[in-house]
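Morning F.,

Quick status update on the modeling queue. The single chain you submitted on Monday has been processed. Sequence for confirmation:
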Amino acid sequence: MEDRQPTGLLLEMLNGDDRAEVEDWQREVAIPKAMTSGWFAAATAFKNLRPDESRFPQKIDPFSHLTVYEIDRHDVAWTCTEGLPEQEGGVRVVDRLLYRRYPRPSQGRVSGKPTLGLFLILISPTERGRAQELRDWADFTHIHGIVAASPDGFTTITPYENVAGDDPMFLHLYELDTNDPVGAVDAMPTAVMKRWGFDFTDDAFQRWAISDALDIWYVNVFGRVAP
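Structure tokens below.
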């Protein structure tokens, strides 16, 4: 993130009715505890900007906040999460997912600005035997189409794979440097259509947007929690 190139990420999903309580817990309890463990190189807290998102399949339990822990060791699969805080008061950890960098480069641009938002995509192939087909479509058709359109607010897009080989198998981390992550994400398809001359009804647009090897697990937009 922010031109750092971690070898892996731990996604920590949190939930709580009181947003301020969750964000205080992220900043004052969970992140300091995790950073003293020695397993992580950096951590950034985010809040869910569309907690009621229903336009896409959401196959994991809902969560109000997300902490992204960066790992810079090569043995990402050995990352230890034992001893990390699980809950306190009205805050609880819903899940933790561990990903390693997929062996293809990030795409996009580096703006020199802080990452203020994330567009988080979790996907799997419809069948395990189609994983490479899905990966190739994602990297060379879908993500490439977005990068070439250079939508406002989008910086780097980086693919990761689940270290355990479980679902969701792939993580696409879209970094945003805008104060309006939701607006940037909503405007992105229009930028892609303008760049490539697509229309929503075109077969070409559908080939960019969807693959029959694609099984969507989670899609949402997050904003950075102020320090």
